[in-house]
Amino acid sequence: IHDYDIDPTYVANNIDSVKSLSLSSGKRLLYEEFGALGGSKQSQIQAVTNTLISTGVPWMYWEIMKPGMGSSDYEVWTDEASWSTLKSQSIATRAHVGEFGWPEIDGGS
User: Alpha-carbon distance 40 to 85, whole Å?
Assistant: First the structure.
């Protein structure tokens, strides 16, 4: 799913139908290329990834690059507060067993 709307309510309200269609079609699902900016960048990332984790849908953030521009841009780098959120949410996502596996991305485990 390529969608720029990261409102957790929007994601939660729309993900189930997409999951059903994906599963019935034998296709894998990935919510990708989303990002956040502004003073609430870290909490926006936390909220949407919490929603995705709860639905069992894996995700991929828009861009991790050096240098990140902090709250003024969508990119994130390891020296920003948002990095710790992405890192911990990635670990939580990998620990959550969902219907969609991506062994070529996660090393086969």
Answer: 12
